[in-house]
Amino acid sequence: MLPCAERVVASISRRLFRSYLSVSSRRRCNITAFMPEAAGFDGVSDRSTLQDFSVSNSEKFWAAAARHRLSWIRTFDAVRDCDLSRGKIKWFEGGKLNVSVNCLDRHVHTCPDKVALIWERDEPGSEVKVTYRELLDMTCRLGNLLRRRGVKRGDCVTIYMPPCPMAVASMLACARIGAAHNVVFAGFSAEALSERIRDAQSSTVITVNQGVRGGKLVELKKTVDEAVQSCPTVQQVFVATRTENPVLMAARDVALDEEMLKEDVVCEPEAMDSEDVLFLLYTSGSTGKPKGLVHTQAGYLLYAALTHRYVFSYQDGDVFGCVADIGWITGHSYTVYGPLANGGTTVLFESTPIYPDPGRYWEMVQRLKINQFYGAPTAIRLLLKYGDQWVRKYDRSTLKTLGSVGEPINTEAWEWYHTVVGDGRCPVVDTWWQTETGGICISPKPSDPDAEIIPGMAMRPFFGIKPVLMDTEGNVQSSSDTSGALCIAQPWPGMARTIHNNHQRFIETYCQPHPGYFFTGDGAYCSKEGYYQITGRLDDVINVSGHRIGTAEIEDVVNQCPVVAESAVIGYAHDIKGEGVFAFAVLKQGVDTQYGDVSQQLKDTVSKKIAKYASPDHIQFVKRLPKTRSGKIMRRVLRKIVEGDLEGLGDLSTLDDPTAVQEIIQGNSELC
Ligand code: WTA
């Protein structure tokens, strides 16, 4: 088995530039009909010149977009003030606005009864529609309640909820009163949640009594109870009701639905500065501690709105179906902020792709008349195994664009998505981006009018984005048909501004590796034609079912088990998940136990301490790990062993004790 990166490169070289399909008409479009703000741009006559203009006249481009797309309380004085080498990123300073007004009030003025949210609840056919007027009312009541209960501008509220209208109203209520939100994916364990609450210093948490997913109840309130035991800052927990089942309410708990009803539907929005914090979102890095990336108001919203409209060709009246959980950046930008800033109708998907059966997505597409469907390759790979009949059963004629996000999409999955799901007529946009980038940075559309799409390639930079590839010496690769470390050469409004409470880590991670450039942590290949293909992470972050997890985070948990002396965790190619988790563990001397039991125990501990998706698929017990003489674990060697690439083990002369490798190879062949 080849690792992700090599697999991808090998597969591109086989299929590169098979002229695949021309998905949009080759007619030259009227550029101002396409993007009205382009009217004032000199020399811009089509999308490729618009792309060039947006990069070489970045300030002009973003200023026009910001004026056109956002409602300002006070317009900005400066477009940008950035110095990437010092991690200084500021956009639209002097400007004041309110994000909830941009997402709600301005649409309520023009179309109050338009559906903002379609809550696709776990039980098929029980969707709930929420209009802009209703969502504004909910948001205002909730904003008033938070204010009355002492939440102030600048505070950070943690939200631990599945996708539901109340979760969206909670995010927007925070934005309305100037508090930052910190949404924690509701699949995270109590320990992971409490770590994030503590780091964010939240005194308020919002949750639901129970979640419902795949026909099962999820005890979210109980998890919060457990989490807040180790969070002395938490003073109040608001509990919304998703199921009829009562949960234990302590003195600090507040029944959210009841209390909201007592509040007024008018809530004065705070006039926020462009660079005030809108939210923190924790994500995994290459060290054990997750980092709270910080996104701010104006730049983030503008970028989410613009990418949502153009990458997916979103038109007014379309129903946008992003099935990502709101606990991830994809849910933030393309379930909530992008679609709502554009006055769109967005679907909140509470269920799973196979509940009650593998036709769930497509039955939903038919019932809700979804026009753009945005999901993860891992789900596509899973569904294609169930066969085409689950797709063909349903009418998908409303679909116009299919999107893919979060991990590389392999050719088989891409082709199935395109030919079966999209009946060969919908463009598939493979979108590359990260929590750090705030929105999509590379995708086949919209920057080329003659948008040929090559399977599984993110291809073209979005407006204002200038990718570069660095060679191993840190020089910008000047020619194409080459691979390197993917960096972005100039700032864009949607990028993260810092890591909460740790600007130094932000600088070290993103700004210092290639001074003057934003380093993404991903590797990429750039074809002769200038199209980009993401080849995978360059650091110790792996991507399991589209979810990021640092191998060090898993090792930390495994190492805490009393029987374990040390461990090493790697990612390996997995058919459905993209990458699976493989752990090597050295048990303490004298531990006399059954490997099978310990193995299960370790897996359970990782599920309990982080989340289910991080739990190792395989654990191999070894006497020792391969280490350099200076004591560094050689994960590269472990990866090669798991991939069965013994020829590729490389130079083992730096190993402290080369016999360790032979033992591991032997043990691995017995295990697999
Ligand atoms: C990976 C998710 C290949 C990449 C939006 C990135 C991708 C990490 C793609 C970010 C793609 C995301 N092709 N790899 N289209 N999209 N990735 O922060 O390694 O959860 O750095 O953001 O996912 O994951 P995150």
Automatic annotation (TrEMBL):
InterPro entries: Ac_CoA_lig, ACAS_N, AMP-bd_C, AMP-bd_C_sf, AMP-binding_CS, AMP-dep_synth/lig_dom, ANL_N_sf. CDD domains: ACS. The lineage of its organism: Eukaryota, Metazoa, Chordata, Craniata, Vertebrata. It comes from Takifugu rubripes (Japanese pufferfish). One of its GO terms (molecular function) is AMP binding. PANTHER family: ACETYL-COENZYME A SYNTHETASE. It catalyses: propanoate + ATP + CoA = propanoyl-CoA + AMP + diphosphate; acetate + ATP + CoA = acetyl-CoA + AMP + diphosphate. Residues 105-492 form the AMP-dependent synthetase/ligase domain. One of its GO terms (biological process) is acetyl-CoA biosynthetic process from acetate. This is Acetyl-coenzyme A synthetase. Belongs to the ATP-dependent AMP-binding enzyme family. Residues 553-632 form the AMP-binding enzyme C-terminal domain. It comes from the Eukaryota.
